């Protein structure tokens, strides 16, 4: 069972609709006790980094999530701010992140190459995918496109964790994977057949 972590931010229904179309069992989890049957976890997120981290901490689900991900090694997919929460911390706020994939979330505006670009980075963009990227091993052509909406990006400390990049003035880390832990800055739930295939590959991992 895929459990979508509903801690107060994130488009939960969009994921539910996508998994229904894929005929993959998925349910939301709003409390720790609803995570017990999970085989895979989706950590969505929108808005500001500190607000999302605060809500997750206050939800009571964080200790259970850490047990499931770090000890039992259940596959997890962080999406948008949910991906950024996997990092050590963010320039957008002061709270520490989960530190499941070491790195820092940085502002596009802090990079001279992107400072003159429209903010946020919004719309469709191509991915440059690493050949061995786990989420792309089945069902993808050479140039998958995904929908983005963000002003901050994940800067992985270890670039071997980077599964795909996209370009917005410069090449930024768009998808990260460390073993069973994955993060995508784009929105697979809004990315048509490419997003559906990514979620299907995750569900089968």
From TrEMBL:
UniProt keyword annotation of Amino-acid biosynthesis present: yes
InterPro entries, sorted: Class_I_gatase-like, GATASE, Imidazole-glycPsynth_HisH
Compartments it resides in: Cytoplasm
Pathway: Amino-acid biosynthesis; L-histidine biosynthesis; L-histidine from 5-phospho-alpha-D-ribose 1-diphosphate: step 5/9
Catalyzed reaction equations: 5-[(5-phospho-1-deoxy-D-ribulos-1-ylimino)methylamino]-1-(5-phospho-beta-D-ribosyl)imidazole-4-carboxamide + L-glutamine = D-erythro-1-(imidazol-4-yl)glycerol 3-phosphate + 5-amino-1-(5-phospho-beta-D-ribosyl)imidazole-4-carboxamide + L-glutamate + H(+); L-glutamine + H2O = L-glutamate + NH4(+)
Residue span, Glutamine amidotransferase domain: 23-202
Keywords, alphabetical: Amino-acid biosynthesis, Cytoplasm, Glutamine amidotransferase, Histidine biosynthesis, Hydrolase, Lyase
Active site: 80 (nucleophile), 187, 189
Recorded superkingdom: Bacteria
Predominant location category: cytoplasm
EC numbers on record: 4.3.2.10, 3.5.1.2
Function, as annotated: IGPS catalyzes the conversion of PRFAR and glutamine to IGP, AICAR and glutamate. The HisH subunit catalyzes the hydrolysis of glutamine to glutamate and ammonia as part of the synthesis of IGP and AICAR. The resulting ammonia molecule is channeled to the active site of HisF.
Subunit composition and interactions: Heterodimer of HisH and HisF.
Name of this chain's protein: Imidazole glycerol phosphate synthase subunit HisH
Gene for this chain: hisH
């Amino acid at each position: 069972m895929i459990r979508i972590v509903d801690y107060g931010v994130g488009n939960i229904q969009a994921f539910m609709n996508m998994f229904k179309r894929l005929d993959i069992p998925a349910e939301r989890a709003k409390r720790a006790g609803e995570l017990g049957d999970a085989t895979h976890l989706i950590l969505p997120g929108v808005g500001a980094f500190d607000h999302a981290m605060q809500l997750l901490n206050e939800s009571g689900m964080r200790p259970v999530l850490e047990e499931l991900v770090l000890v039992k090694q259940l596959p997890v997919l962080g999406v948008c701010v949910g991906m950024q929460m996997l990092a050590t911390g963010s320039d957008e706020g002061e709270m520490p992140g989960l530190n499941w994939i070491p790195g820092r979330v940085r502002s596009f505006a802090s990079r001279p190459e992107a400072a003159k670009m429209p903010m946020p980075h919004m719309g469709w963009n191509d991915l440059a995918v690493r050949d061995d990227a786990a989420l792309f091993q089945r069902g993808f052509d050479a140039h998958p496109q995904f929908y983005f909406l963000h002003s901050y990006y994940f800067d992985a400390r270890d670039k071997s964790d980077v599964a795909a990049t996209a370009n917005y003035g410069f090449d930024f880390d768009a998808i990260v994977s460390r073993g069973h832990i994955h993060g995508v800055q784009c929105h697979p739930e809004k990315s048509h057949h490419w997003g559906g295939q990514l979620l299907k590959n995750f569900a089968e991992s």
